[in-house]
Design goal:
Two copies of one chain form a homodimer.
Chain A lengths: L2 H19 L6 E5 L5 E6 L12 H13 L8 E6 L3 H9 L4 E6 L24 E3 L4 H21 L1
Parallel strand pairs in A: 3-4, 4-5
Antiparallel strand pairs in A: 1-2, 1-3
Helix pairs in contact in A: 1-4
Chain lengths: 157, 157
């Protein structure tokens, strides 16, 4: 990873942290165009928006598309702190995102290296370049801390 | 299929037809609660909304969740004219939809019986009851006609 790429992932991590403060599972996603302009930076909002599709990646894709006025994000890069699920991985493909960088692996809910392995199928028409494990420790820790805290709160009830 | 179920799929087909008129790939989706109340009925709007995630199922799920004020559609049924893709199939799982009825099979883009086969993985935490092939011929024909017409228009240019 270049310093530039680490900087973008740190911004996605910052979004994840903001999500945790608001009670959302802390996952953050950021989309940049080919010139390095940030088109969108979002965190999960499934609970706040009462929307099961409101993962950070989905919100970022929708916002970035609105910004450029087109339903494809050609030559764009998506940074996300956690391995995307099958829903988000498929949306990334539909949006024609060129490169996907993600942080922590998600053996339970991931759809890139785990479960559905969305990009491995013949019927997947656009496969982004993928690199996982970026700042993986930090990206994973914020999630572990969040769920540890949640369990503690539930025990205290 | 009961008459009732056929009626709901016909309404989803009607939504698909409306989508075709507006230039969208004609797929329609409808969500009903356990008492048979229609919570949402939508067609694909990816082009109109400039949103690659705006499949009929996604829009219907989001609308139904807003209507009931909760991010889960427990005991609800989703009717869709085409086999859901991996994105929509995963969203259906996240929304905890109880039953999924779909029309035409989609060997190229489907994610239920084809490609990612989202519900077959150990990591899929909620698997709806699924029945495909409902009014399959009609659901498929509207798509075939749409793409045939599109190819003709392109040839005429």
């Amino acid at each position: 990873m270049t310093d530039h790429q680490n900087t973008f992932m740190r911004q996605a991590l910052q979004a994840a942290t903001e999500g945790a403060v608001r009670g959302e599972v802390p996952v953050g996603a950021l989309i940049v165009d080919s010139e390095g302009n940030i088109l969108a930076c979002r965190h999960n909002q499934g609970i706040l928006l009462k929307d099961p599709t409101a993962h950070a990646e989905m919100l970022a894709i929708r916002e970035a598309c609105q910004k450029i006025g087109y339903e494809r994000l050609i030559d764009c890069t998506l940074y996300v702190t956690l391995e995307p699920c099958a829903m988000c991985a498929t949306a990334i493909s539909f949006a024609r995102i060129k490169t996907l960088f993600y942080g922590a692996l998600d053996s339970k809910g991931g759809g890139v290296e785990h479960g559905s392995k969305v990009y491995t199928h013949r019927t997947c028409h656009h496969k982004p370049e993928v690199q996982g494990g970026i700042l993986a420790e930090e990206c994973g820790k914020i999630l572990q801390d969040f769920f540890k805290d949640l369990r503690k709160k539930r025990q205290d009830l």
